[in-house]
Amino acid sequence: MKKCKFLLESFIRILFVILVLYIGFLNISNLKFDNSDKFFYSFLLIIVTLVIMWLYKKKFINKKIFWGVIAIYLLIGVAVRVYFIKNLNFNLASDFDFVFQNAKRILYGTLASADNYYLSFNGYSFILSWLISLIFRIFGESVTAVLYANLICQLLSTYFLYKIISIKSSKETAGILSVSFFLLPTIIFANLLVATETPFILLFFVTVYFFYKIINRKEFKPINFILFIILGILICLTNYIRPVMTVFIIALIIYYILNMKKFKEIIFLVITIVTYLICNIGINAIIEHNIATETRSGALGWSVYFGSNYDYCGSWSPEDSEYVFNVLEDETKGDKDLIILSLKRLKEYGVGKTARLFQCKLESLWTNNVGTYGFVYDIIDKENTNIDFAQFGAPFDDISRIMVILMCVGTAICIFKEQRKKEDTWLFIELFGLGYILSNLLICLNGRYNIPLYPILIICCSPLIDRILIPKINAKKSKEITKPKNKKEKTLLIVPAFNEEETIEKTINSIIDNGYDYIIINDGSTDNTINICKKNNYNYISLPINLGIGGAVQTGYKYALENNYDIAVQFDADGQHDIKSIPSLIDPIKKGQAHFVIGSRFLDTKSSGFKSTRFRRIGIYLISILIKCYSGKRIYDTTSGFRAANIDIIKKFNESYPSEYPEPISTFELLEDGYQITEVPVKMHERQGGNSSISSWKKVYYMVNVFLSIIIAKIRGVKD
């Protein structure tokens, strides 16, 4: 059974991929790359989207910015639609005019005088006319009101497409793909049609979403029986708008049987199909009661195929056209006679000629009618409109082709990987997509009927977009915190000093008065710092040359490790750090809550005392945002030198410590390695003497280099 299932799934996917790649090839061969500004800006939007995805993948932008871009894209889509609605006048023709006029008759209760011929052979037109009549009742007889209703339907469709993709992919992938669908030129133009495309897509998405939410409910509970009854009703309603949704039932049966674990589970499938049939009979009865004639839903659609001339790729010969309409007008004949006609033609033309017709239809479907532009252009009142709509045809067709090519390639890649890994990500969608392509070859050459295939391809692409878009989650778990061996933790204050003769004595005396161990790291001072240390018999290490703050602090960590200290605290020699804040700084380490603690000036601004310059605060904020984007954790005071480390960090810094910009870089590296960092509010003072190593124009240089250092550290990866 498993082998049969695998073979059937393989056949479905192989055939679907072949057709999808062929559609992609057809669009490549028909690309013209229009040189208008419309094409340029539309193509630029595609490039910007890809760049946004890459920036999010690399964590250069965070979720707020990403979702802000999604919101902007939605606004662009709405603005373009409103622009067309406000600036185009419509001269309704063909089936659009039929629906519009019948809606008026329903509104005024004169349905008996409606075009029963059109209504009877297209059951969906009755439902659409009834819906439009409701809009007329509220907003008056206005095409514009219908178009705005279409806009609402498309927004809802975008939302449900987002919900569908979110079932098996990330929310970010669902967001970028759903707005891509909303910005498709084909979908934008569909907004301008007084036809069934927009409500069909909405109902289709609702049905698919509902299907995926309930398909795994196999327990015999009352709620599950009700849910599958609702599924049958949804399929029926969608089928009435587009009869080709019969493919949905076929796909449902195949998919359900393939995934059925116990035979008794088939009862839910039976309930769905029976509900569908009962609902179908009920709607037919309602329509026939209102129009006083028999309905033949979809008969006209099939007639386009059966009335096609095999020698002219679906064109109607006068004899074919006359015969089909005679069949449809004759109350004693109907679909059965059309089937007999098709069988006669299959016998007459043979398999080879019929196959060539299908190939010709496939090419026509995806080359001459990529979008809905042609149908919109036919119903525009070209003499009484504010814009030249013709200028949008070529560029938007090209953009549609580019997006179709991307979707086809993405779909093929995803299905190939799915098949290789023997996964079932979107098998039902693939199955329905295959059936939809094949059924459209039978029915008609109408490009607007291809619209459901766009979201099918988009959904199938979602696993690939997940890989392209979503940053890799750091697989490293948070490291365990080593508990001190001694009952009373030994704490060392590391005091780096470079030319601190004005403050070193006061700083060290305060440390001694509070009973802390310390080590001064004299970093090649050229003033009187070393002499003060010698005179007062302080504990110090004197470096022969100036190593910089990174080298000096790492020397202190080496000293702490060699002398078995459990906690090491960086403490500036310039008097900025408050000795009374040390207990709160080391408390999380003593409690085993963190590996590393940062004393922050920004958690409690009232008690922190000293405030840095506005320019420096802006720089600290930007560094904080960058670290947050990359690591997922917000560190508010990224340049604080008042920090405490437990034995794990002492050991790590003994091996490796940044020589330049050590505070923000070391913090970022610790976060990347999975160490637990926390911040506590501390009090800081103005410098009591000496000069900051970061001053004047060097502040700009410092910030730029910190940014670059963090980015480089992220790209190269942090080693344990």
How many DSSP-defined strands? 7
Uncertain spans: 298-304, 693-697
Radius of gyration, in angstroms, nearest whole number: 36 Å
Count of helices?
Answer: 29
What count of structural domains? Answer: 2
What's the rounded overall pLDDT mean? 81
Calculate the terminal CA-CA distance, rounded to whole Å: 48 Å
In percent terms, what proportion of residues is strand?
Answer: under 5%
Describe the strand arrangement of the main beta sheet, using strand numbers: 3-2-1-4-6-5-7
Largest sheet: 7 strands, mixed
Helical/strand content category:
mainly alpha
Write up this protein:
This protein has 720 residues and is mostly helical. It folds into two domains: 2-469, no CATH class; 491-716, Spore Coat Polysaccharide Biosynthesis Protein SpsA, Chain A (Alpha-Beta Complex), CATH 3.90.550.10. Helices cover 63% and strands 5% of the residues. It has helices at 2-29, 37-57, 63-87, 94-107, 116-121, 123-139, 143-166, 171-183, 185-190, 197-214, 222-241, 246-258, 266-291, 299-306, 318-329, 335-367, 373-378, 393-420, 427-443, 453-469, 504-513, 529-535, 548-562, 582-590, 605-608, 614-631, 647-655, 662-672, 698-716, and strands at 491-497, 517-523, 540-543, 567-570, 596-600, 643-645, 677-681. A seven-stranded mixed sheet has the order 3-2-1-4-6-5-7, with helices on both faces. Helix 10 (197-214) packs antiparallel against helix 11 (222-241). Residues 298-304 and 693-697 have low confidence and may be disordered.
